[in-house]
Amino acid sequence: MIWLVWRQHRKQALFAVAGLLALAAYIIPTGLGMRSTYTDLGLPACVSSMGDGQFIPSSFTNACNETIRSFIGRYTAVANVSVLLIFLPLLVGIFWGAPLVAREVEHGTHRLVWTQGVSRRQWAMAKFGLVGAGSLIVAVVYGFGVSWWMAPLNRVGVTRFETFKFDVGGIAPVGYTVFALALGIAAGTIFRKVMPAMAAVLVVFIPVRVLVAGLARPRFATPVELAIPVDQPNPNLNAARGDWIQSMAVKSADGQTLMDNASTACNPDAADCGGMSGALNTTLYQPGDRFWWFQGIETGLYVVVAAALIWIALRGLRRIA
User: How far from 181 is each of 76, 92, 95, 102, CA to CA, in Å?
Assistant: First the structure.
């Protein structure tokens, strides 16, 4: 059975290998170049001077600040290519998941196997298992490959929580890929035709991803609130920590929002501080050290949904003639 599944899906495997090699041909040279520039500009010393405290220390120089800005500006366009990888799980769901059952049923080839002493469950487990394993390998390789690639930019303050950075690095791609594959399999079992199953993956996958990223992810943990009186110097958060700034506002002493998405300052010697006496510059943020926690929560969420979809697919196979 494994040999048969391999024969059926070897072209997909070869395309996956070719895709990973193409990705490696891009990220390895650019990643090594990024690291070389990082060292040549003296950024290790600058990052070290930033420390690991909540705020940038006074020892941090303007020269380092300018060097970091130059480095980020130089490689931001290179890193933005990673946005294209956000579609890889969707492609897995459309071209690997949706046809897995639907094409067999549409062409009637499933009957040949089911009448040769192979049960539906054995057939499904072999196909789901082999294709699922290949999908996991692809997701792990590109997820950790992108994490390695982006590491120099993360060290100088490009937070890994940014939407297109979070979604293509670490273990999160594993969750997205497993979900997309399971969604395609379930859709193929329900519709039993390839094109409707592909359309279902497209219609469901994108809204789910948007809703989870926009509504659920910011609420995985209660953000930390930082409040500093407006008549005191407003220190800069240490970008090297990779904190995710969720909102900023100026609030009165009783918690009323005076200015949204802004901060302000006043002369403490001014009478009534210009009408802002007692006001606070507030910042809500997720600490950078919560990154892997958030990745684990989101990945687990998609894996649980994928398991439910596979169960639906297995139940659906019983109703196929």
Answer: 31, 6, 9, 13
Structural domain boundaries of the chain? 2-220+291-317, 224-289
pLDDT tens digits, 246-268: 999 988 878 888 888 888 877 66
234 vs 230: CA distance, rounded Å: 7
Q: What is the 3-state secondary structure (H, E, C) of 10-25?
A: HHHHHHHHHHHHHHHH
Distance, in Å, from the CA atom of 13 to the CA atom of 19, rounded to the nearest integer, reads: 10
Q: Show the beta-strand stretches assigned E in the chain.
A: 224-229, 244-251, 257-260, 280-286
Task: Using CA atoms of 119, 307, 291, 72 in order, give the dihedral in degrees to the nearest 10.
Answer: 60
Residue with tokens 């990052």: 47
86: burial class by Cβ within 10 Å (0-12, 13-18, 19+)?
A: middle
> Residue 55: helix, strand or coil by DSSP?
strand
Pairing of strands 244-251, 257-260: antiparallel
- For residue 108, the model assigns a pLDDT of 72
Tokens of 90: 């969707």
Q: Is the pLDDT of residue 1 over 60?
A: no
Pairing outcome for strands 257-260 and 224-229: unpaired
For 64, how many CA atoms within 13 A lie in the half-sphere containing its CB?
20
